[in-house]
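agent> fetching stored inputs for the zinc ion docking request
agent> found them:
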Amino acid sequence: MDCIFCKIINKEIPSYKIYEDDTVYAFLDLNQEHCGHTLIVPKEHFQDIDDIPNDKLMYIFDIARKLKKELTEKLNCEGIALTQNNGFIQEVKHFHLHLLPYYKNNVQMTIEEVYDKLK
Ligand code: 5GP
Ligand code: ZN
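agent> prediction call returned; pasting C-alpha cells
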C-alpha cells in the first residue's frame, strides 16, 4: 500500500518524531503554521473514524492528553485544538489526530526550532 504515514511509521521516510510506542507514532506536521502542530497516528493502517476500532481511538486520545501537556509545558502555547478530518477534506488516508497549538501572541518557529524544544 502506498501510504505516506505507513512509510513514516516504518521509517522509510524521515520525520520529527515526538512519541512512539507499540500502538502509536506521533510526529510534527510538515506544515508548522501552528508551531508544534503534531499528528498522532495508529501504527496499524486504518483509514478514518469509521474504520478505526474504539479501543485504538481511546488510546490515541489518551496519548493526545499526554502530548497536550508536553506541548503546553515546552512550547508555552495557550490553547490546543484536536482535529480529525474525514472524506474529501482528509488529505492523507491513514487515520490521524491533529494537535494544533494556539498562542495569544504571534509565535513563529521553524520545524527544527520546535523539535529542539520538544526533544
Ligand atoms: P489531513 O488533511 O489528512 O487531516 O492532514 C494531513 C496532514 O499531513 C497535513 O497537515 C499535512 O501538512 C501533513 N503531511 C502530509 N504529508 C506529510 C509528510 O510527508 N510528513 C509530515 N510530517 N506531514 C505530512
Ligand atoms: Zn497507512
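agent> quick read of the result: The chain is about 30% helix and 20% strand.
agent> awaiting further instructions
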